[in-house]
Amino acid sequence: xxxxxxxxxxxxxxxxxxxxxxxxxxxxxxxxxxxxxxxxxxxxxxxxxxxxxxxxxxxxxxxxxxxxxxxxxxxxxxxxxxxxxxxxxxxxxxxxxxxxxxxxxxxxxxxxxxxxxxxxxxxxxxxxxxxxxxxxxxxxxxxxxxxxxxxxxxxxxxxxxxxxxxxxxxxxxxxxxxxxxxxxxxxxxxxxxxxxxxxxxxxxxxxxxxxxxxxxxxxxxxxxxxxxxxxxxxxxxxxxxxxxxxxxxxxxxxxxxxxxxxxxxxxxxxxxxxxxxxxxxxxxxxxxxxxxxxxxxxxxxxxxxxxxxxxxxxxxx
Length: 317
Hints:
Elements: H1 8-11, H2 24-32, H3 35-53, H4 55-67, H5 77-103, H6 107-117, H7 132-141, H8 148-154, H9 160-173, H10 179-185, H11 191-204, H12 221-229, H13 233-241, H14 247-263, H15 283-289, H16 294-305
Helix pairs in contact: 2-6, 2-10, 5-12, 5-13, 5-14, 7-9, 9-11, 12-15
């Protein structure tokens, strides 16, 4: 399927993936792999569980990134979890659904394949609880306009960028352990070659600015705001630390996600979790996408909270 010249995919320079018209049975076989690939998935799942149970590991990575100058503030675990919920629904899911639609990619089946190929990559929407290899796997299997967010995360690991570049080059050479799955999942035909260049640019300048959100990418100003706010780790942590939440609020937030996931299978149900808090976004971004008038902001916030979506399996950041 050729992208329309004004489609979301075309505006981001994405080309149709080579696997798009292959039989579904073959596409499912691509992501199953063998024992070595299964072992990697189990290890990454175990590492995710350890990070969730030992939040001081996440805090240590964030403190390292703050010392490197990538972020200014370190949010609490509760703030991270609630911000991840907001990022997932207003950024990752809505934007990704629109991108898949513009590429002709089936939403449910493709996310099922992503889960089979790397369960841990779709279970941590913010990426902060993920291991080094899970982040790398995510970057290699999923289209990113500019993976600055994830490359910054990898600076939280001493060898993160080295291994990222090594594995990206393995994909181009056709020698990666997960070659078959990763090339069968990526949603943009020219992504991996572009990714190597972006990694090189980031290594030369780790403070390179994320590529700007293309004007007119989506018609919803609230979604444009969410994409702009969460396009890099500094934006995410700034948003998170402004959330007045504790452990109970985080628990309620994710119980709401679970409830919406169940109710979402029924047509016509209304999501209670598809929202982003304007008062927690960077003021200059709110002004850019929503407008400076507070009454306009409040009206838009009410509209966001009433957004109805049928959410499928959530992708990771």
